[in-house]
Design a protein that fits this description.
single chain, mainly alpha
Length: 220
């Protein structure tokens, strides 16, 4: 049977699929980043009596504020980089979409380790576990899926823009892999020096606030 789908139609369908995936991703990011604030609890009158008033209660919530701001920053960085990644790919396919679902699962999971971090970062008994769990669930898992997405997309250039320079692709591949190894190392460090490891992660995320490298295209 003759295939009646023209190259133009196929290209348009690819664009539509990519657009739908991006819209779905934006929705998950928006929900995850909104859920973070739900962990900052509004006090009841009984709480005010226990803490001696509204002001002392609000002050003692500083770990929750910190966890909220940091996780908001983390999700924002992941969202910005995902937007950057979508510029480098021309289309998607089923398997890439499934890998993206795994990545989004790790993003949607982030409010849980954020809540644990807010509750236990000032608790010397459980601080180490809370920080280690946050680094694992909030930073390492997304990084794992990110590397899988990237490597699948660039393999045989199945999804990536074929105009991109090979040196540019290899540079990003190296950077993403180094980031994965680095987060894994910081996770291991957190079992022994939780405050030091978390301080390193704060510094790293501040570093990633800078604009990513501009795509480099081969001369055509």
């Amino acid at each position: 049977m003759k295939n009646n789908i023209s190259p133009t139609t196929e290209k348009d369908n690819r664009g539509l699929n990519k657009t739908r995936l991006e819209a779905f991703c934006d929705g998950v990011f928006a929900i995850a980043i909104t859920l973070l604030i739900l962990e900052v609890k509004i006090p009841k009158h009984a709480d005010l009596i226990l803490y001696g008033g509204l002001r002392p209660y609000l002050v003692q919530l500083w770990p929750d504020y910190f966890a909220y701001v940091f996780s908001f920053l983390v999700i924002g960085i992941w969202w910005s980089n995902h937007h950057y990644l979508s510029r480098l790919f021309t289309h998607t396919d089923h398997y890439f979409s499934m890998l993206t679902i795994g990545f989004l699962m790790s993003i949607a999971f982030l409010p849980f380790p954020t809540a644990l971090l807010g509750d236990f970062i000032s608790d010397t008994t459980h601080r180490s576990t809370a920080i280690s769990f946050y680094i694992f669930g909030g930073l390492l898992l997304p990084s794992i899926f990110w590397n899988l997405m990237w490597r699948y997309g660039i393999n045989k250039k199945r999804l990536i823009d074929k105009r991109l320079k090979e040196s540019f692709i290899k540079g990003l591949t190296r950077m993403y892999f180094i980031s994965l190894i680095f987060i894994t190392s910081v996770l291991a460090l957190s079992f022994f020096f939780p405050i030091v490891s978390f301080s390193i992660m704060i510094a790293v995320n501040l570093f990633f606030l800078k604009a990513p490298k501009k795509p480099e295209y081969a001369n055509t």
